[in-house]
Input
Amino acid sequence: MAKRRKGRPINGVLLLDKPHGLSSNHALQTVKRIYFAQKAGHTGALDPLATGMLPICLGEGTKFSQYLLDTDKTYQVTAKLGIRTTTSDAGGEVVSEKAVDVSSEQLAVALDSFRGTTKQVPSMYSALKHKGQPLYKYAREGIEIPREARDITVFNLELLRFEDDEVELSIHVSKGTYIRTIVDDLGELLGCGAHVADLRRSAVGNYPIEKMVTLPQLEALLEQANEQEISPSELLDPLLLPMNSAVDGMHCVYVDDMSANFLRHGNPVQAFNAPSEGSVQVYIGEDENDVNAEFIGVGFIDDDGLLAPKRIVVVEQY
Output
């Protein structure tokens, strides 16, 4: 007899407002405990010193976390001019201190150089891996690993405030962009050095900021459920967004039950409403007007023009 997994098979996406000082993994494990979920995964770590939107996928939703890793993100960052640190944030050791003599005009010119598509060399204090180990582990041992510059896009960069030695920015960037590296590079351009004093992620893809919840809010709902002697799921589950929210904007394809069964067993099927290539959302239903259409995962169009399974939801059997 197969051993039953601990927790319940709850599926969805929670938009957590991660607090300052907590690692993303600690936040993830806390949410998993509160929801008593079998599986959970986050969609791109935020540094312990950063706050803001951390989508956490539960259950079968973990199959679609990669799509959120690949989406663009928006941050509000406060850069402290005059001090450069080893980690390019307030948690690092001071590398240099210089006087700040920067005009608004100089700052505007420097900021403009980051807009659009440019090359960025990832920080040694990033979670990128080299031989199976994240770069920050090498950095803590004083080992420098060569990194290749890669293309990033800054879709929008807005100056919110420039007072004394602080610069506050709103930055909308493509996947894989390191804000701490932008701030460090900005400090070098200005000739005085800089580091991240405060960082908050306000958006991941198209997720609405008003749907974010905090850990204290979740703990309070758990306590409320216990006091009312009801299942915590009654209060917690309505906070979850559907799994397909992770692939919002992807083309939708509709199949019948028989085709869905083929896909669930790893077989490609004919799909008459599919595009000629690329990944697609897959639903059991008639068309986009079918209010009862059921999301079953993500497929792709193979070389034969057939719809092949890529990430398919497993139906939990009770």
In short: The chain is about 20% helix and 30% strand. The chain has a mean pLDDT of 91. The longest strand covers residues 150-163. The CA atoms of residues 33 and 260 lie 33 Å apart.
